[in-house]
């Protein structure tokens, strides 16, 4: 019998990428549990092999539904892979409440089901749990960096990570964790930095840089995140945390300049707008443990090439993102961004 994975948040940006990756590279069957919030797109699961993927609309904090979906995961290689989250920092500043529900209570609900049934569990998290670094800090985040989250989003992700660690230690839950840096690639909601600027330019709007644009993010292609998660599922040691990153540090200003150049515009054709409150300055991942212990390497080491392919994807797939755009920009306009 082929392995059966329960992928929560599989209709979102990175979760859907993982579903495509798993179906292309393994013989696993996938059940997606997704609440289909504003951030999701069922179309992101289009074109997958029939009979190997099933979409269940529902909430990861719904204990009865989670019980129904986790109980059958008893075979060799079966696992829960937990991507579902409220994921956007700016939204968490406007209203933290759904972040507590989904990120914290949702994780608790899944962990309790994994505990009852002895189910293998992989927890998807973020480098933001570590807070931020100075621009000139020679150190990067490692698995032993102290937690120091800044936003309601990152605080709820940090809390969910700590629940997983406690459930491993106290109840013997068979879990692994990964903390990844900023993802880019196709099918990312237009509220996020890179797709927002690409789709702004398609619409004739100048890109919007928060503050001076000196903040640094460590970019990784979503396909590389997926291959790393699959590697951890197959080879990771239970109870361990693995940091996922592809050495992709760039300031926001550099990224906007690259997008402008790739879309045939002048490099200074952008606007500075109101900065994000509490805006983390720099993230940077040291992924040595994942590379040396599990033998993982990224397949998209060239950020500029990956970005150009992403620009092409948004140009060619307007039907996928057009429905999100007006409401997203209306929300940003209210915040002066
Ligand atoms: P996303 O916002 O694109 O997708 C989240 C998905 O979760 C959506 O399909 C949404 O409908 C679903 N969801 C939300 N609440 C739910 C609930 N209560 N029950 C069931 N489904 C629910 O997010 P993303 O960017 O794809 O992030 C996925 C995961 O990866 C998150 O856990 C996030 O913290 C983590 N992560 C993201 C990044 C990044 O750069 N985007 C980097 C590192 C880690
Ligand atoms: O580091 C991993 C995290 O990356 C994930 O955990 C989050 O889920 C994901 O949303 C992302 O968080 P960021 O806050 O870094 O991503 P965002 O796309 O919102 O912003 C990236 C940077 O760009 C950040 O410094 C803020 C800035 N920005 C963002 C927008 C939307 C702008 O300058 N202008 C913008 O219009």
UniProtKB/TrEMBL annotation:
Keywords annotated in UniProt: Lyase, NAD
EC number, UniProt record: 4.2.1.46
NCBIfam families assigned to the protein according to its UniProt record, in alphabetical order: dTDP_gluc_dehyt
Swiss-Prot/TrEMBL cofactor(s): NAD(+)
Keyword Lyase: yes
Reaction(s) this enzyme catalyzes, per UniProt: dTDP-alpha-D-glucose = dTDP-4-dehydro-6-deoxy-alpha-D-glucose + H2O
Keyword Calcium: no
Family affiliation: Belongs to the NAD(P)-dependent epimerase/dehydratase family. dTDP-glucose dehydratase subfamily.
Protein name: dTDP-glucose 4,6-dehydratase
Enzyme class: lyase
Annotated NAD(P)-binding domain residues: 6-305
PANTHER family cross-referenced by the UniProt entry: DTDP-D-GLUCOSE 4,6-DEHYDRATASE-RELATED
């Amino acid at each position: 019998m082929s392995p059966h994975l329960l992928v929560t948040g599989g209709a979102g940006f990175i979760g859907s990428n993982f579903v495509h990756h798993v179906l292309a590279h393994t013989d696993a069957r996938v059940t997606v549990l997704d609440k289909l919030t504003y951030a999701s797109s069922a179309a992101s699961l289009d074109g997958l092999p029939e009979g190997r993927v099933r979409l269940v609309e529902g909430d990861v904090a719904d204990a009865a539904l989670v019980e129904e979906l986790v109980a059958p995961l008893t075979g060799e290689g079966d696992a829960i892979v937990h991507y579902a989250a409220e994921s956007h920092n700016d939204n968490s500043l406007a209203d933290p409440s759904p972040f507590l529900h989904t990120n914290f209570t949702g994780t608790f609900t899944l962990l309790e089901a994994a505990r009852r049934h002895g189910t293998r569990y992989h927890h998807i998290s973020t480098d933001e749990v570590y807070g931020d670094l100075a621009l000139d800090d020679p150190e990067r985040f490692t698995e032993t960096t102290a937690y120091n989250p800044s936003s309601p989003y990152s605080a709820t992700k940090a809390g969910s990570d700590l629940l997983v660690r406690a459930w491993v230690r106290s109840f013997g839950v068979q879990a692994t964790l990964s903390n990844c840096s900023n993802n880019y690639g196709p099918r990312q909601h237009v509220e996020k930095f890179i797709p927002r600027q690409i789709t702004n330019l398609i619409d004739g709007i100048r890109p919007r840089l928060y503050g001076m644009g000196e903040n640094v993010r460590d970019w990784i292609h979503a396909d590389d995140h997926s291959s790393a998660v699959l590697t951890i599922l197959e080879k990771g040691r239970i109870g361990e945390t693995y940091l996922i990153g592809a050495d992709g540090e760039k300031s926001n200003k550099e990224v906007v300049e690259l997008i402008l150049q790739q879309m045939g515009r002048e490099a200074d054709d952008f606007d500075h707008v109101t900065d994000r409150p509490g805006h983390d300055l720099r993230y940077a991942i040291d992924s040595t443990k994942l590379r040396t212990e599990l033998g993982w390497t990224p397949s998209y080491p060239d950020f500029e090439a990956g970005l150009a392919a992403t620009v092409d994807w948004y140009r060619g797939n307007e039907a996928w993102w057009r429905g999100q755009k007006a409401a997203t920009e209306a929300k940003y306009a209210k915040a002066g961004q």
